[in-house]
Amino acid sequence: MMPPDHNTTDPNQGCGQRLRAAREAAGLSVQDVATRLKMPVRVVESLEAEDWSRLGAPVFIRGQLRSYGRLLGLVTDVVHASSGVGPIQPVELKPRTYVPRMRIVAEQSARRLVYVVITAAIALPVWLATRPHLAPQDAVSGSLDVPVSVADGADGQASRGPTPLIASMAPVAQRPAVVPVPAPQPAMPALELRLSGDSWVEVTAPDGRVVEQSLLKEGTVRGYAAGEVGAIVLGNAGAVEVRHDGVEQDIAPYLRANVARFTVSSDGSLAPVGH
Questions:
Q1: What is the reported pTM?
Q2: Rounded CA gap, 31 and 49, in Å?
Q3: Per-residue pLDDT for 209 more than 70?
């Protein structure tokens, strides 16, 4: 049985009532309509309740009403008219005001003129302020050798005018040549360690204070003054050369498994630890 033509119902009936009546006459539920139109149930309920605030912009409302009306066989224009949702108004295009080219050129020229005036107002005072410093000054040069007659007749010179200056040809006395004095050479350290390989070195003063305790790299040279060192421990003694007053010392008597331990007297001589 076909549903009655709902396009001929009361014209005062709202679009929501028209849609609900047509849906019920077709034997469809709200869920059926939502499934067929692929839209949420709340949208179908809002269309039948004419709750446009939940449906967004008018363009979406009119599109949803059109889909719902076509599903139920209703005339789309009648549904739209009864919904109260106005049609989409095209954007009104306003013609752009025409600006004559001469006016554009005049405005650009005026802006450039203002820029030139501002630049001149800033640069001119700066140029005037620095001009006295840039003006060349006349330098008067002359010989320091002034004849005695000129100095004696200074009072009469004012009436006769300026006296010409005569350049002196007297030889300049030569200064004696300065012979550079060689800088004193630093004194050779009383005790010296020269490393041909990496070695752990511990150097203590006669009072037990640690002078140096670190891993020294290959090529390092350490020098100590007389009386500065009280005892030395060399971790890799085979890579360390010990010198006293420039003379290499034999540290073999103080070796234990390539570790040397010895004391240093005030005169720089070496002795085993404990002596």
A1: 0.34
A2: 15
A3: yes
